[in-house]
Amino acid sequence: MAVIRDYNKLASDILQEVGGEENISNFSRCATRLRLVLNETPATAKANVQSMPGVIAVVESAGQFQVVIGTHVADVFNAFSGMVKMNENGAAQKTRWLDAVIATMSAVFAPIVYILAAAGILQGLLILLGLADADIKSTGTFAVLNFMSWTPFAFLPVFIAITAARHFKCNPFIAVLCCCALINPEWTALAGKIATGSEVKFFFFPLAETVYTSSVLPPLFLVWALSWFERRVEKWLPEVISPLFTPLICFVVIVPLTLIVIGPITSWAALGVANGYNALFHAAPALAAAIIGGVWQVIVIFGVHWGITPVIMANFDTQGYDSFQAYQTIAVIGQMAAVFGVFIKSRNKQLKATSLSAGVTAIFGITEPAIYGVTLRFKKPFICGCIGGAIGAVVASLFGSLYYAYAALPGLFTLVNAISPDAPMSFIGELVGAGTAIVLTIIMVQFVGFEDPVEETQNIEQSAPLTVGPLQMLSPIKGEVIALESVKDEAFAGKVLGDGIAIIPHEGKVVAPCDAQVATLIDSHHAIGLICDNGAELLIHVGLNTVNLQGQYFTPLVKEGDRVAAGTPLLAFDKAQIEQAGYDLTTPVLVVNSDEFTLTRHQSQGAVTVGVPLMSLA
């Protein structure tokens, strides 16, 4: 996957390929994917988006067009959010109910997954500290860190209120207010009385003993109901009193409705599914382990893995432990081992680099780059990872391994979640199972092998010229040089997109500043990206906000993939017409990956002609 730092461009390109804003019913993201619900999927969208720099893969699953981006998905999602303004109703009614459920789970949990992961890591560290020094548990420091580690789980309904309100498009403050009522200590005390046999009614309706700390489905369905009810209340009320009475009416209706109906039913449903899995686990733990360890990464491929979260949370809430995540972790570790197995066996430098990067990401529990970038691409390593994960999980099940702390991103660092003073063999079994998955998978990859593209790499290496010493960049435009900080655009002036200089053009022509390859030619033709022979990524952006011209007055003279020499004409533009249209033609010349180079400016201001040395990169 090519490196990209212009996430606004990537988001714009994706939006264009999928048919524009009018073709989008809904969109969300998870830890690694931009998830789009399209009214219709253009025939060429998958292939075109998948070939974009910065995109690992495209998966069409669960009624979604899922663009796998990796750890920078938040940057692309934020850019995408600024380009797509969903209307009140969208076109969500066209989505199948199962697809809508999966999309909702992803939209709700993905934004808070790292918060939960941070708390889970803290819990794991406290477990280790307690084992190293039992007396530390009686200290105030341990007590403070311990309640901190449980905070996001105790207040999980509040986090869900925030993310679900965005997904269902309702007032987030009303959603938080309602969900806070569910975890109010006064309700917990009332529920405790009901549990001991006392009857408590809301008017004529008896209340259940359900408590909602750490709950998932009750707050989720609460916000869903709120989104429907709030819109109707706003329509009923006169505009002058709506800001005050809409929160009041929603509050006094939705909270009791949840306590009487929504909460008990959804809690029962989550427990029912959890009990079904637990029944299989208790009847045949090795079978449950083999299924989860072997199939989990297949589920990840289709992007429906968020749907299991309520089941896992229900187990932790009712039992204080969970077996699913113990096996899920080993499945993740199996795929991690598979990509490291490819790294060990491959003789392709590019594949080794990709495998190493994806493997490091998989250590932290994110396996999509490993799957789409390496193992699934070559098929056999993916299968080896699934087999290793299944066998490793079965081994762990023989020790009775369980997780005693929730792992938002199960992986190598969450193995400590299997530690419990009451079950000393749990952690040992998890270690042995994980070790089995790692060793077995790597060995299988070495013996089974895959089609290593060695010759392709050698050809690339032989054909690619090498640059020794600093790379000299010549001026691509005739004009007046100014400091980048002087550009009247915050992104350019703040060097968000990279360091460089800017030129106010005196004529409408752009040439190559060095020997390079044309990496990107933006559809509106106002900007061009180059990759220099030393790896520097250049962006020449003609004018400010000239993307709005949609290519008018611009004429590209090269195409993507072309090899150009210094001085080769790249782009022509009608300077007079663009200025007459009211656009500032100040042209930033940026080194996008400037953090990887030492940039020396030969000229920071004054007149410059084409071909004059402008900067050096070392």
TrEMBL record:
Pfam families: PTS_EIIA_1 (PF00358), PTS_EIIB (PF00367), PTS_EIIC (PF02378)
Keywords carried by this UniProt record: Cell membrane, Kinase, Membrane, Phosphotransferase system, Sugar transport, Transferase, Transmembrane, Transmembrane helix, Transport
Domain PTS EIIB type-1: 8-90
Protein EC: 2.7.1.-
CDD domains for the chain: PTS_IIB_glc (cd00212)
Keyword Cell membrane: yes
GO MF entries: transferase activity
Active-site positions on this chain: 30 (phosphocysteine intermediate)
Listed InterPro entries: Dup_hybrid_motif, Glu_permease_IIB, PTrfase_EIIB_Cys, PTS_EIIA_1_perm, PTS_EIIC, PTS_EIIC_1, PTS_IIABC_b_glu, PTS_IIB_1
Domain PTS EIIA type-1: 489-593
Principal place of residence: membrane
Transferase keyword on record: yes
SUPFAM superfamilies: Duplicated hybrid motif, Glucose permease domain IIB
Highest rank taxon of the organism: Bacteria
Residue intervals passing through the bilayer: 108-131, 143-165, 202-224, 244-271, 283-306, 326-344, 382-406, 426-450
UniProt membrane topology term: Multi-pass membrane protein
Residues covered by the PTS EIIC type-1 domain: 103-460
Subcellular location: Cell membrane
Protein's UniProt name: Beta-glucoside-specific PTS transporter subunit IIABC
